[in-house]
């Protein structure tokens, strides 16, 4: 009989591409992963892998087993959930991941509401970058994640996951309080900001890559004077009138020394709650998802 734990390893190899990446994701050594995959191949009685240089690649039989493994693991998870929650009360631990502004404005209010309404339910919160969220669900390190996509970079459909749109978050220009942007009308046109100094998020962030492209599409190259990973530093630069920036509305704290302005063409990001389909039978996960929907309104 095939070992379910080893099925998780071949699923990871199919998704992540290398033995080392699987080992890192599951906190194992590469040698241990290789040994377990070799045992799985012996259990299967057919060739699942082939070596190309230092890489271990799936054969057609290996790719098919990886696909079936996801279905098997999802079913086993649903069975475990059903057995563990024969009652209807939401209880136990639910691990929720999300990016910083969503944690502050959605997850924490939901957590506070659930502490009052479901005292036997415990939320454990993990701050995650959006690009790490889906993998956290697949690894099983989170039960629910809050993430986002842009209109022009949508979330990729994943048959293992169920998603629920929580809200939409418009992108705004942030500047010093009292600053006049463009001709003073609202919304501002992006091309009117061609002469501004810009402070942007790091180039590794989705927003840090998005804005320069939008500026170029509007006919100018932004004059970037700062790249920051700290949200407060971005806001401080704006408050001192040293730069302007673009941030989602939910990421901007209430401060008297800054102001926000809508800008034509910047669009919005959609904020989603994602869960593994196998956990949807769990009452606690249902309750957390419902609380996130309510908190996002």
From TrEMBL:
Domain of life: Bacteria
Keyword Glycosyltransferase: no
Listed GO CC annotations: cytosol
InterPro entries, A to Z: HTH-type_LysR_regulators, LysR_HTH_N, LysR_subst-bd, WH-like_DNA-bd_sf, WH_DNA-bd_sf
Sequence ranges assigned to domain HTH lysR-type in this UniProt record: 1-59
Alphabetic keyword roster: DNA-binding, Transcription, Transcription regulation
A single MF term (Gene Ontology): DNA binding
Family note: Belongs to the LysR transcriptional regulatory family.
PANTHER family from the UniProt entry: HTH-TYPE TRANSCRIPTIONAL REGULATOR YBHD
Protein name, per record: LysR family transcriptional regulator
Organism encoding this protein: Xylanimonas oleitrophica
């Amino acid at each position: 009989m095939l070992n379910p734990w080893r099925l998780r390893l071949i699923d990871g190899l199919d998704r992540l591409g290398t033995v080392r990446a699987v080992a890192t994701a599951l906190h194992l050594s590469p040698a241990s992963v290789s040994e377990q995959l070799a045992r799985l191949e012996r259990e299967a009685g057919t060739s699942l892998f082939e070596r190309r240089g230092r890489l271990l690649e799936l054969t057609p039989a290996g790719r098919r087993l990886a696909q079936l493994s996801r279905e098997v693991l999802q079913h086993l998870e649903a069975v475990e959930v059903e057995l563990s929650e024969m009652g209807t009360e939401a209880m136990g631990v639910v691990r929720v991941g999300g990016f910083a502004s969503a944690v502050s404005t959605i997850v924490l209010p939901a957590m506070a509401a659930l502490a009052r309404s479901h005292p036997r339910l415990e939320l454990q919160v993990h701050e995650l970058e959006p690009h790490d969220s889906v993998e956290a669900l697949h690894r099983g390190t989170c039960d629910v994640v809050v993430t986002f996509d842009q209109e022009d970079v949508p979330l990729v459909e994943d048959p293992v996951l169920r998603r629920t749109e929580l809200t939409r978050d418009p992108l705004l220009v942030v500047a010093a309080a009292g600053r006049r942007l463009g001709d003073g009308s609202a919304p501002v046109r992006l091309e009117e900001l061609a002469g501004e100094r810009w402070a942007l998020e790091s180039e590794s962030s989705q927003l840090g890559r998005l804005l320069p492209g939008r500026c170029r599409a509007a006919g100018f190259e932004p004059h970037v004077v700062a790249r920051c990973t700290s949200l407060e530093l971005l806001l401080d630069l704006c408050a001192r009138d040293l730069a302007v920036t673009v941030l989602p509305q939910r990421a901007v704290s209430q401060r008297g020394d800054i102001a926000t302005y809508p800008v034509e063409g910047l669009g919005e990001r959609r904020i989603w709650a994602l869960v593994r389909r196998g956990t949807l039978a769990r009452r606690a996960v249902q309750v957390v998802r419902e609380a996130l929907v309510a908190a996002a309104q």
